[in-house]
């Protein structure tokens, strides 16, 4: 097996889209019109309710990359895969990273050593979000969320860098949002195809919109951890060391990781550079 294709719909545009994972030598890259685009060439254009990246003057412009990138991050994949995208978004699929993770395993994507490491203890604050960094021999990623909602409340989740734990505990965690939140997004022309089987839509009374399944144990926190892994991947991937994120979100994640690199809390192994930026 040399390639696996996924077809579906975009969460925000509602349009049909597809992504194909192709076994290929070299670092992970996207291919557009026959041209390879590396992570280092990608720029973050938006990080609210999903992450949209562009490159090469708009020749690459794709939304909702975070769940795909989380699968690469959780399995430690830095090479051996080429990504071909059709349409404006990565398809929502299961609302998490389970299908992408299974595909990378089926393609035999190789695992690589972390590209980042925590070299100094410290804390970064991004709005209401706080991130602490501490050197350690292994990878330890933890999140704590706190929502004023009985369905969620305070939850904590952690991950020890294990691909097995990623596939069993983190990858299946579905994205979530509140009914009023999605109504506001719809008024702005986004969230046009919210599939309640893949997105946990929380109603004002705290219930989950059917036919969505009830949340699993710590599923909300685990999905926030999944999102953090996807955001870390744009900077190189989960680091060697401990990272604890309190009240994380995509925009805050990108700001905090960039600041941790700037402040010298994080460093890239082997002089790897990344031009990812928040606009």
Shape: globular
Task: Quote the distance from N terminus to C terminus.
Answer: 39 Å
Please give the CATH architecture: 2-Layer Sandwich
The low-confidence runs, each spanning 5 or more residues with pLDDT under 50, are: 271-279
Largest sheet: 5 strands, mixed
SSE sequence, one letter per element: EEEEEEEHEHEEEEEHEHEHEHE
What Rg, in angstroms, do the CA atoms define?
18 Å
CATH superfamily: lpxc deacetylase, domain 2
* Number of domain modules: 1
Description:
With 279 residues, the protein is α+β, with helices and mostly antiparallel strands. The chain has a single domain, classed as 2-Layer Sandwich (lpxc deacetylase, domain 1), CATH 3.30.1700.10. It has helices at 66-74, 98-106, 163-170, 179-187, 219-233, 250-263, and strands at residues 3-9, 16-27, 29-32, 35-38, 43-46, 52-55, 60-62, 79-86, 116-118, 122-126, 129-134, 139-146, 154-159, 175-178, 199-202, 241-246, 266-268. β12 and β13 (154-159) form a beta hairpin. α1 (66-74) packs across α2 (98-106) and α1 (66-74) crosses α5 (219-233). The longest helix has 15 residues, at 219-233. It is globular and about 50 Å long. The termini are far apart. The relative contact order is 0.20.
């Amino acid at each position: 097996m040399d390639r696996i294709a996924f077809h579906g719909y975009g969460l925000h545009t509602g349009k049909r889209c597809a992504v194909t994972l192709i076994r290929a030598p070299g670092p992970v890259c996207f291919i557009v019109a026959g041209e390879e685009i590396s992570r280092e060439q990608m720029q973050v254009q938006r990080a609210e309710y999903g992450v949209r990246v562009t490159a090469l003057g708009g020749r690459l412009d794709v939304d909702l990359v975070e769940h795909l990138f989380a699968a690469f991050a959780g399995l430690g994949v830095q090479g051996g895969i080429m990504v071909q995208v059709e349409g404006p978004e990565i398809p929502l699929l299961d609302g998490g990273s389970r299908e992408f993770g299974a595909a990378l395993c089926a393609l035999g994507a190789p695992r690589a050593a972390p590209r980042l490491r925590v070299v100094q203890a410290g804390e970064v604050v991004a709005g209401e979000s706080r991130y602490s960094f501490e050197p350690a021999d292994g990878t330890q990623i933890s999140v704590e969320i706190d929502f004023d909602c009985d369905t969620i409340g305070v939850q904590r989740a952690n991950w020890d860098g294990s691909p097995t734990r990623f596939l069993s505990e983190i990858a299946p965690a579905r994205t979530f949002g509140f009914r009023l939140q999605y109504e506001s997004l719809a008024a702005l022309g986004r969230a046009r195809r919210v599939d309640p089987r893949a997105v946990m839509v929380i109603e004002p009374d705290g219930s989950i919109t059917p036919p969505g399944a009830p949340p699993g144990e710590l599923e909300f926190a685990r999905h926030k951890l999944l999102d953090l892994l996807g955001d870390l991947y744009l900077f190189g991937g989960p680091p060697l060391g401990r990272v604890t994120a309190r009240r994380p979100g995509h925009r805050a994640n990108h700001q905090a990781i960039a600041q941790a690199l700037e402040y010298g809390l994080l460093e890239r192994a082997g002089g790897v550079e990344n031009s990812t930026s928040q606009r």
